[in-house]
Amino acid sequence: MPPTIRFHLDEHVPPSIAEGLRRRGISATTTPEAGLRGASDEKQLDFAHSENRVLVTCDTDFLRLHQQGVPHAGIVYSPKGRRSIGELLHGLVMLAECLDADEMKNHVEYL
What we know:
This protein has helices at 15-23, 41-50, 61-67, 85-98, 101-104, and strands spanning 7-9, 28-30, 54-57, 75-77, 108-110. It contains five helices and five strands. It has 111 residues and is of the alpha/beta class.
């Protein structure tokens, strides 16, 4: 069985998203929980990669890192304010149900 997607939410993503994912049995960590508040984008992405977690963000700097070829376990990008918390949560649940962790490696999904 392929590995399931696990998420890491950067500090700009509402923590209620992590709570909603966990209630649905999906593993999620947050930047504050990982002790990374204020850490550089590179450090955030490295943490998520080392934990094999897909980074969820609304920060375009992570898209730049992806374009530069920085390895990662996957990035989910949603522009700030474009989706409600419910819509973002629904999109992440769908990703976790439709893709596996191997399919997300070095891949960007836009919500």
